[in-house]
Amino acid sequence: MRRLPVYHHFLTGLAEKGIDRVSSTTVARQFGYDPIKVRKDLALTGAVGRPRIGFVTRELLAHIEAFLGWRQTQEAVLVGCGALGSALLGYEGFSQCGWEILVAFDNDPDRAGTRIQGKPVMPLERLSEVCRQMNVKVGIITAPAKSAQKIADMMVDAGLRGIWNFAPTSVQVPEGVILQQENLLASLTILGLKLKNMKSERKPGLLIDE
Fold first, then answer.
1. Digits of tens for pLDDT over the chain (210 positions)?
2. Model-level pTM?
3. Exposure letters 63-82 (e unless 16+ CB within 10 A, then b)
4. At the top level of CATH, which class does the domain 74-186 belong to?
5. Which residues of 17-155 form beta strands (DSSP E)?
6. Candidates 1.10.340.30, 1.10.1200.10, 1.10.10.10, 3.40.50.970; correct CATH number of 3-68?
7. According to CATH, where is 1.10.10.10 located in the chain?
8. Which residue, 60, 2, 55, is CA-closest to 31?
9. What is the helix (H) or strand (E) element at residue 65, kind and residue range?
10. What is the Cα–Cα distance from 62 to 50, expressed in whole angstroms?
11. Residues of the chain with CATH 3.40.50.720
12. What Cα–Cα distance (Å) separates residue 9 from each residue in 31, 36, 50, 96, 100?
């Protein structure tokens, strides 16, 4: 699931260059993967390649998009219109994979009633009302950590069944609600540690614990 969007981006570039056919070996070589792994990944989408010919590039793209659900519009709401929330509201990549943020919510009265990146911003207390009215099932949390659990609880009470949490803290949700946790600080920390280890490995005689 994580690799298929990466393949899609690569294949889109090939299609834009007019490359009509592509092999799983070419995709594997691009990312340093085992060709057998790539063939299994692509087989999950229902795409069928031909020996020594490969896949029709645009047909393969269509299979990946259908498998990932990108050809069906999925709607979401966002809570927390600070720097990160505002950036996500303007991110054009969501529409490319079938997602649309319909409305944002914030507890700052100066933001409520305005528009950010063309999206209406409403008071947080209207979350349940609007979500039920629009039949939205997915919520995105980009609020401060101290507010994240309260917002998650409000989303669950509003009938949302999927939560994408960007707040730098874990939240708890009941069974039947899908939680996707993103921790930007953790990812950045891991990157820093990898860079540190890379520099240390260049020093002769230094033992690195894996």
1. 889 989 988 998 999 999 999 999 999 999 999 989 999 999 989 888 888 788 999 999 888 888 887 777 789 999 999 999 999 999 988 887 888 999 999 999 999 999 999 999 999 999 999 999 999 999 999 999 999 999 999 999 999 999 999 998 999 999 999 999 988 877 888 888 888 887 766 655 444 443
2. 0.70
3. bbbebbebeeeebbbbbbbe
4. alpha beta
5. 21-22, 55-56, 74-79, 99-106, 115-116, 119-123, 138-141
6. 1.10.10.10
7. 3-68
8. 2
9. helix 57-68
10. 17
11. 74-186
12. 12, 20, 22, 11, 19
Residues 79, 141 contacting (CB under 8 angstroms): yes
Tokens representing 42 are: 């692509």
Structure tokens at 154: 């409000």
